[in-house]
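Hi there,

I know you've been waiting on this one. I reran it after we fixed the sequence typo, so this is the corrected version. Both the input and the resulting structure follow.
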Amino acid sequence: MYFFISQLSISDILLTTDIAPNMFHILLNDGAKISFVGCITQFCFFGAMEASECFLLTVMSYDRYVAICNPLRYTSIMTNDNCMKLAIASWLLGLVVLLLDTVTISTLLFCASNVIDHFFCDILPLLDIACSGAFIVQVESFVLSVPAIFTPTSIIIFSYTNIVLAILRIPSNLGRQKAFSTCSSHLTVVCIYYWTIFSVYVIPTMRKTLTISKILSLLYTVFTPLINPMIYSFRNKDIKKAASNMINIYSCGKKY
């Protein structure tokens, strides 16, 4: 579990590093310039981190499924080698999915305005200013969303359905609380992350204003990476115990 949390943290750090500095520069200067190559590069890294996080959250749901539904086989299934393979597969799949999308987007023709009314180079604002090739990108994005979004979502729903059924079969209330506490943090992160992703890319955007789209984009590029460490910290007994020990040591040091 801690290994996958570390991979999720790396993804959040890379995502924020890719988006936040340029976004603050835009806000402080009331706009900024970015080259076409820089825009495509930003989109590539942003999309790769987003897709990789989808796969990592899916792997983490499988990890929780094995821990709750097959506890006696957990150590034999989730070995160090298997965890490493699953993490590498998540990163590679995220990179491959977005490389295909990035190559197609880089061939778009922008013959009208070259102003992107957004905080970063995302697929939707790029398609708004494209004058040809947009339909091909939309079709490709829909096809790629099946392995990148819908398939992981289905696996997560299947995993947590079985987890809930397994928890309900536990006779004692204390046992049910302990079982649920092992996956409550991950479930909270999944709900927040996928809600924002579906709100921006899956739900039809015709009725959403540009301001709402920007706010939703901020949720999964800045807000979600910010609260992920807080959620896992507040819900994790080991981290809370370590933090408590550090506070006690600091307090004792100040007294002396």
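Quick highlight: The chain has nine helices and no strands.

Best,
R. S.
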